[in-house]
Amino acid sequence: MPSPFSVIEPTAEETPLTVEIPHAGLFVDGPTLSRLAAPARAIGRDADLYVDDLYAGAPAQGATVIASHVSRYVCDLNRSELDVDAESVEGAPPHARATRGIIWRLTSEGARVLEAPIPRVELERRLDTYYRPYHAAVAAVLERKRAKFGFAILLAAHSMPSVGRAALSGTAAPQNVRADVVPGTRGRTSASATFIDCVDAQARAAGLSVAHDDPYQGGYTTQHYGRPDLKVHVVQVELARRLYMDEPTLSKHLGFERMRNWCTGLTKSLGAIQPR
């Protein structure tokens, strides 16, 4: 089995920035695969493909990168351990609804991910093998940065389908086309304005459209770690996949290098900020 995640330390003078990439991985282990009903193509379509490549220049800007290699169909690292329901995990509360919680039961296109709810012991295996070590590493890096610099900033790096699911089914109106860049900060509560406005300014300077918190406000990482009062700032950054890849074929296109340069520039700018 490959390492579940990588922690890539800075290759230049360290900054307070960490880039966290939870969804670029494709690896599915045997026990998970034996319970999987989703078609193989869905593993790629529901991954944030190439986001780890987009931020490959971050360590040279002084950032630490934490990147998972595991498919979100194993467990979704951007969800709470408690985000389960009875159709995804045996014995979960019957009133809970977690279609795409820590254990996905439907793909983004509506196909089944699971043949049946997984046993609680299987959930615990995935948590102990993948989820808890990953978040322990994130917490340790953030604490190290905060101790060294007096604060820490985490860029939660994601990508998103360029249109909403309704549009993918052919029934959407034009307004379902998403912005190029979506900073998610849970209503500007997970980071100081200085960091949020930096992401906004970097996008607009590159001619990219921006929509804050629409349709993604930031997931578990943003909510759990984003504590400006404790000097930890988190901004989730969603990039529309049309900017760097052909979504039907899952292949990079000529825009990839432009967006990789943009991501490198963003990490440089965020790492240089001294919050007010």
Account of the 3D structure:
30% of the residues lie in helices and 14% in strands. It has a single domain, classed as 3-Layer(aba) Sandwich (Aminopeptidase), CATH 3.40.630.40. The radius of gyration is 18 Å and the shape is globular. Strand 7 (245-246) and strand 8 form a beta hairpin. The chain has helices at residues 30-33, 40-45, 51-54, 120-149, 165-168, 193-205, 220-225, 256-271, and strands at residues 5-8, 17-21, 64-68, 152-160, 181-184, 232-240, 245-246, 251-252. It has a six-stranded mixed sheet with strand order 1-3-2-4-6-5, with helices on both faces. It has a two-stranded antiparallel sheet with strand order 7-8. It has 276 residues and is of the alpha/beta class.
Counting helices, strands and paired strands, the structural category is alpha/beta
Low-confidence stretches: 167-174
Sum up the overall morphology in one term: globular
Averaged pLDDT: 94
Question: What is the number of helices?
Answer: 8
N- and C-termini, Cα separation = 45 Å
Reported CATH architecture: 3-Layer(aba) Sandwich
Tell me the count of domains.
Answer: 1
Q: Which series of helices and strands comes N to C? A: EEHHHEHEHEHHEEEH
Q: What's the helical proportion of residues?
A: 25-40%
Q: Give the number of DSSP strands.
A: 8
Q: For the record, what CATH class applies? A: Alpha Beta
Q: Record the strand order, biggest sheet.
A: 1-3-2-4-6-5
Set down the secondary structure blueprint.
Layout: E1 5-8, E2 17-21, H1 30-33, H2 40-45, H3 51-54, E3 64-68, H4 120-149, E4 152-160, H5 165-168, E5 181-184, H6 193-205, H7 220-225, E6 232-240, E7 245-246, E8 251-252, H8 256-271
